[in-house]
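quick q for whoever's on today - can somebody do inverse folding on this one?? i tried earlier but teh output was garbage lol. tokens:
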């Protein structure tokens, strides 16, 4: 099965409440594997612990802005699925928490998969990275997700 590598970037978005930061819905018959996720904040020097989690959900959230995945290989073609950032309604349905970590927002959150821990997602089991708690004040967050589209 051919793999096509992409990155999806939620660039410098103001976030003042908990919620879904980035949601990736693969196309039918084109599952993805998440390889790396990095979430950073760009404007605060104040220490604060905030939890982040990655989930697989059966229903996508609502609202948010579209994100265009960028192929990592020249001439790699467009991503077949859809990606949104900073959804106003959370992904729902059957939700499985795959990874959760509390961390200091100054350091950000960095998750790098090994081959055994790559997160698989399909059109009926989409991937979501979410902030679980309201920050003390609005933050400017950037999230980058690296993934392979299969098929």
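ok took a stab at it. sequence:
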């Amino acid at each position: 099965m051919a793999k096509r590598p992409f990155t999806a970037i939620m660039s410098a978005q103001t976030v003042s409440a908990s919620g879904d930061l980035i949601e990736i819905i693969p196309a039918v018959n084109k599952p993805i594997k998440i390889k790396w996720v990095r979430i950073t904040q760009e404007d605060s020097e104040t220490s604060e612990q905030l939890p982040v989690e990655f989930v697989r959900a059966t229903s996508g959230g609502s609202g948010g802005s579209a994100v265009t995945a960028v192929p990592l290989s020249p001439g790699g073609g467009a991503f077949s699925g859809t990606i949104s950032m900073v959804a106003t309604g959370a992904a729902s349905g059957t939700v499985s928490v795959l990874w959760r970590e509390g961390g200091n927002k100054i350091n950000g959150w960095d998750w790098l998969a090994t081959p055994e821990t790559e997160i698989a997602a399909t059109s009926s089991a989409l991937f979501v990275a979410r902030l679980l708690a309201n920050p003390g004040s609005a933050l400017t967050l950037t999230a980058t997700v690296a993934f392979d589209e299969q098929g």
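fwiw The first strand starts at residue 3 and ends at 15. also The chain is about 0% helix and 60% strand. so keep that in mind when u check it
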